[in-house]
From TrEMBL:
The keyword Membrane applies. The chain crosses the membrane at residues 20-40, 90-108. Gene3D superfamilies: Rhodopsin 7-helix transmembrane proteins. The keyword Membrane applies. This is Uncharacterized protein. Keywords: Membrane, Transmembrane, Transmembrane helix.
Length: 123
């Protein structure tokens, strides 16, 4: 089966969703980058940013940046008019986003459990 289709080309119905996702991803990348920047820059000045929770939130923000950067690949493919792409190529292009997504979900669940234990069994 060929990766080319007879109706390849830039079409509006294939272009609108990646534009919206990329816009939301861009905002998310900016905000998560600011979380990482503020935590790293001010961690020695504020005791709140020295905690394990603040460090875990920073790592979670980093993984979310990886995850959200995958939206731009979707936009590039749509703008170039490629409606079908080979599976091995898309896995190669999206592996960082997939790793970021699953790592962020795992870390978020770990943070939730940590906060639950902190509230349920205060020291």
């Amino acid at each position: 089966m060929s990766a080319q289709s007879s109706d390849d080309g830039t079409r509006f119905e294939f272009l609108l969703p990646p534009i919206v996702y990329s816009f939301v991803g861009f905002i998310g990348i900016l905000l998560n980058t600011s979380v990482c920047y503020i935590t790293i820059k001010y961690r020695k000045q504020y005791s709140t940013l020295k905690t394990n929770t603040a460090i875990l939130l920073t790592i979670n923000s980093f993984f979310e940046i990886l995850h959200q950067s995958g939206q731009f690949i979707y936009l590039i493919i749509a703008v170039n008019g490629i409606n079908l792409i080979q599976l091995n190529k898309i896995i190669l292009f999206q592996i960082h986003s997939i790793i970021g997504m699953f790592s962020a979900v795992f870390l978020f669940n770990s943070l939730s459990f940590d906060r639950f234990l902190g509230v349920a069994f205060p020291i």
